[in-house]
Amino acid sequence: MTSSAPAASAAWTGQIGAPTRLLLLRHGQTPLSVERRYSGHGDPELTDLGRAQAAGAAARLGGVTGIAAVLASPLRRTRATAEAVADATGAPLVVRDGLIETNFGTWDGLTFAEARELDPDAHARWLGSQDVAPPGGESFAQVGARVMIERDAILAEYPASTVVVVSHVTPIKLLLQQALGAGPSILYRLHLDTASLSIADFYPDGGTSVRLVNDTSHLPS
User: Fold this and answer.
1) 3-class DSSP state of 35
2) Exposed, middle or buried: residue 196 (CB in 10 Å: 0-12, 13-18, 19+)?
3) 8 pLDDT exceeds 60?
4) How far apart are CA 131 and CA 142, in angstroms?
5) pLDDT over 70 for what percent of the chain?
């Protein structure tokens, strides 16, 4: 992938102006992702494979010209991934708190089965509604609100530019949900691998276009 900053849209899309292109990169593997545990505001390091994944993503994005910035969640797993990308692209690394993962509260570090066993009723309610938060944590609706604020700030700060956003499963799914105009079920049906790349364009007239989802072709086998 060697495309530069996005050009003005083709006429058939109906969108006007040059978009801000978000290259949405999930962080590399951690010990919690290996064990499929909720990993929210806890701060595990990348595994050896996670560092290799970050290097693969960095090599791929190093071929993209015109990247204005690499924006990252403040957690170590995202910052380590973002640092590799910033080194490869020469773009400045900016830590943005609004890109942090969901706070899973007392479920952080638990598996799906462990959280369900701990409080079956609360877990069922959480699965059934974006407005329900884990005990001591954030609901997906709350995360969506802060991600929307962060998205709007990014679009205002980087108009008609390409930026890399290094974040987590939930914020990236929510950005894709917003770009697709999709309902809440996408959060439960969309899979994002560690260090996967997705791409969404956000136009100044409010139009959007999703160009790529969960691409892992750059990762070590």
Assistant:
1) coil
2) buried
3) no
4) 8
5) 94
Q: Which residue reads 């990014």 in tokens?
A: 154
CA 220 to chain centre: 20
Query: Is 45 considered catalytic here?
Result: no
- DSSP 3-state of 165: strand
Residue type, 182: A
Written as one letter, the residue type at 87 is D
| Interval 130-150: pLDDT, tens | 999 999 999 999 999 999 999
Per-residue confidence (pLDDT) for residue 221, from 0 to 100: 77
DSSP state at residue 94: E
Say whether 123 is catalytic: no
- Active-site position among 35, 41, 83, 101: 101
Q: Which of residues 8 and 90 earns the better pLDDT score?
A: 90
Phi and psi, residue 197, nearest 5°: -115, 130
CA gap 179, 175 in Å, rounded: 6
* Mean pLDDT computed over every residue of the chain: 93
Q: Which amino acid is at 178?
A: Q
Cβ–Cβ < 8 Å for 192, 205: no
Q: What's the order of all strands across the beta sheet hosting 162-167?
A: 93-95, 67-72, 162-167, 20-26, 197-202, 208-215
Q: Annotate 109-139 with b (16+ C-beta within 10 A) or e (fewer).
A: bbeeeebbeeeeebbeebeeebeebbeebbb
Q: How far apart are CA 169 and CA 189, in angstroms?
A: 12
